[in-house]
Amino acid sequence: MRILILGANGRTGSLVLAEALTRGYTITALVRQPKSLSAQTGLEIIEGTPYSQEDVSKAFALTPKSDAIGAVICALNNGRTSDNPWAATSAPKSFVADCVTTTLAVMREYGVKKIVVLGTRVMGSSRANSPWIMRKVVDWSNMKISIDDHEEVEKILKKEDSRDVEFKWIVARATGLDDKEKKEIKFWGNEGKGAGWWISRSSVANFLLDAVEGSEWDGQTPVISN
To answer: Residue 87: what pLDDT?
Structure first.
């Protein structure tokens, strides 16, 4: 199966890409800067942004009909100029939500029914079970812009679910991300009660692909940690 990866040149998305190719998937990566990715067997790099429906349509249209896109993984985030929570944002406030909206429109056109999105624990039903200090930092910093964006993504996905019974989605609510090695993933349901502080990006990449392959978490927002 071919997977469209959004954010394939990011810190987590690049690991999703590597894991997907290791598992034998063919990949279409839609990126603004094609030179940020190295040419590899099984990888088709399309120049563009998921913020543009025209570019998303191009990514689908340029895919061989014999190996059409069967699922989408979104590893995008509403970035900041640095990891400092108070750093200025580097994208529109609704960047991820807008990208998911454009992607869903094209998915409908091509009959693609599954999308897996990387989210965060400090939102929705799992927010109350996040560490209090994490909630405070989010509320007092520019991280809140990203959280609000991800909240909107979930609303969009649930709305799509309500209009199409065949549509499948998962939002992986990751705990804090680190760059350690891939480890066993622990699941804390949709509420996240008892979840640890951290999960490695490589572990997240592994789960996002497991979510594409399986159906256990369809229509859910599992909190994941190491």
So the answer is: 85
Q: To 5 degrees, how large is the angle CA 159–CA 194–CA 142? A: 60
Give, to the nearest 10 degrees, the angle between helix 13-22 and helix 201-213.
50
Which residues are CB-contacts of 130 (< 8 A; sequence separation ≥ 6)?
A: 121, 122, 192
3-class secondary structure for 182-217?
CCCCEECCCCCCCCCCEEEHHHHHHHHHHHHHCCCC
Cβ contacts of residue 21 below 8 Å, gap of 6+? 27, 40, 41, 42, 43
pLDDT of 134 above 90 = no
